[in-house]
């Protein structure tokens, strides 16, 4: 599907790394020089002044990670950033985003970049940058975030801004919660979900007096549905509820599940925080079709019952947003992934929605989607 307004709003070249939280910490030589591997997967919200706010994941990587027979990774350590060295004969560097450590009885990886979050203020239509708030960047501040903070999702519930993110470390891969009175000044609250429960999205409003959220636990074993079932076994979008947004209880009913009618959603997870419409909660989510190393990421949508979000009112197997080679052609020289769009934020704009996505794990994309797209046929 094509849209009249669909463009990249932020690319790696727009980021000033002299103002990065990492600036001045790494060795003052070519070995410590960094670049922006990606400026992508932004949280999105509307500020009280009417402007939009992107909270952009900046993946900052070493320009020369391999030297002296080792591959190096950046790590936060007690208020400073250091380099760790791994012997090349112990690692697999096929994926540009991570390297795998060989040996051991399970998958162990290290990241080729460290991520921090940059608030970027846009005009109300989302089509022009107003300010880049480097002084309000969200960076690691605890050992549970020593490999970075990834993929923010912002919800505004009863006047309070809530942001979930993935905090990465050898201790655990956890979901962490931040809060803000204004969408710009963020306070770390705590871990809210434990190891490898990704894509947590807090609904933009309460249901039955409680906070609701979509979650996506990861695992290596899934039990089969019966033969002939309309559902396919694998990662799905689950639900959880909370009295205070800190302590969450998994909901017993399943949320959005991969459908057996299509392999395009063989793997799936949340995208935008569900937003309330007259017909129910609108949820944009990602489905992944298996292909080569990473797969093909597309954006899909579902409407959930306003009183029982475990009930899907309407959905569509056709993708809402797909990766766009036309948009990324000007930054072709920086591309390292194909066929990836990851939608992460939504804002109401009257007769349309403003939707923010990460494009190719590289840039931020803004798409205006008419509300008529989600109407019943």
TrEMBL record:
SUPFAM superfamilies: Arabinanase/levansucrase/invertase. GO terms for molecular function: glycosyltransferase activity; hydrolase activity, acting on glycosyl bonds. InterPro entries: Glyco_hydro_beta-prop_sf (IPR023296), Mannoside_phosphorylase (IPR007184). Keywords: Glycosidase, Glycosyltransferase, Hydrolase, Transferase. Pfam families: Glyco_hydro_130. Gene3D superfamilies: Glycosyl hydrolase domain, family 43. Belongs to the glycosyl hydrolase 130 family. This is Glycosidase. It comes from Asticcacaulis benevestitus DSM 16100 = ATCC BAA-896. The lineage of its organism: Bacteria, Pseudomonadati, Pseudomonadota, Alphaproteobacteria, Caulobacterales.
